[in-house]
# Entry
Amino acid sequence: MVFPVVVLKLADWVLYQLLANSCYRAARKVRNYGFFLRNQTPRSSSQQQAASLFPSASHCDIGNNIRSSQTLVCDIHGVLLRAETFFPYFMLVAFEAGGILRAFLLLLSCSFLWVLDYELKLRVMIFISFCGLRKKDIESVGRAVLPKFYLENLNLQAYEVWSKTSSKVVFTSIPRVMVEGFLKEYMAVDDVVGTELHTVGNRFTGLLSSSGLLVKHKALKAYFGDKKPDVGLGSSSLHDHHFISLCKEAYVVHKEDGRNNQSCLMPRDKYPKPLIFHDGRLAFLPTPFATICMFLWLPFGIVLAIFRILVGICLPYRLAIFWGSLSGVQLTFQGCFPSSNSEQKKGVLYVCTHRTLLDPVFLSTALCKPLTAVTYSLSKMSEIIAPIKTVRLTRDRKQDGETMQKLLSEGDLVVCPEGTTCREPYLLRFSSLFAELADEIVPVAMNAHVSMFYGTTASGLKWLDPIFFLMNPRPSYHVQILGKVPPEFTCAGGRSSFEVANYIQRKLADALGFECTTFTRRDKYLMLAGNEGIVRENKRN
# Structure
């Protein structure tokens, strides 16, 4: 008897909430939309009257020294972020943590999300995005994927007020696990109070915890008690007005300011913390329209990637460049071809920046000559489809040095001394091993650009890296040969291997307009994947 009762209650809830209640709201929306068509005003008089209750955030006195000892409260949605909807961030969770089928299901839900109220929208998106996923996968997305998109959508106007206060607390109805990693790592927030999700074991059920969806003004009262926070930032919605009215000072961030005002765009040099590492496959903010375009492109992209791989494997260099460019691959070459020294018995050592696994392939294509590439980790699939010779290194300095010396005696060699890829305009610390092996060193500045998918990953399937890169509509590679390193800047000229490595790193950074760092492969993988990035092969006795 228990099961039929549960089914009846569930059916009653669905019929009332999702059908009757939502249809009523949809009818009201249609009626209001028709009213706005007849009255071409950007905001209704009630909205304008509500917005005038509190001054704009641009009127906040951020030069006041008292701010440095004050407490600020706000929401991330519609205040710290310029985006009007949180759908793209749920899509990132669904795609990166749940896979393409879950992302497609979330996209399909857009057909009825617009008729639901705010709470039901959140409940539906949370259920589709989180149901059945492991905690560690969601935490990884919150730590390694979402921060890039949050930083790109920060509201500069709101951040200037935020940065002047000493204590910050964020109250949000968005699941806490989606924003806490970013807010604590990049925004120096003191605490995050958000919606908590129900879990069973180490997996999310997609349902809210017993506390339900967070109500901001109630949560603020429970958090501070009788004490009032000093500054409150809110959006122009009436719900936020109730929230910030509990503060000593209250300011509003208007939608129009964040959407159209160029002064609200956050430039990269003003990021609260440099964005050096991030993970995930999607290179664009997946709004509903952009996500539809991605799914429409996907079948063509897969076929195009296979075609481009076959072109690179089967055709001579000139024909590969021709057909590759016809398929949309852009390869730009700058610099002069290095001349080999007839007196040298060794080949030329090309030292490249590392953007994707395809760096040596595009260098070989640009030079129209076969090269050998050494790498620390390469999947079997990548080895099979690689049109050039690849050799794995062991991370044993002595053994790797002997291997590279042997390869140099056989011909030209390509090394990427960063040891791992970096997507942003930064160069990681260079290993100095290469400087001890050759005096004929040619630095090569390489850079790659994509518009839809990233061709690198720290926690995903690495054998898909070149396929994802070649699935982009118009992937591009820039290859710039800087010329041989002068003899006085090599080990033969009296320089140490560390000095040579740092010199070449600086030359490559200057050529690309990048910034040098001391971060290593280990730092990257500890941040993005929670491991040291070392693949240990299982040895069978």
In short: The CA atoms of residues 337 and 464 lie 32 Å apart. Residues 1-10, 29-50, 537-541 have pLDDT under 50 and may be disordered. The longest strand covers residues 167-175.
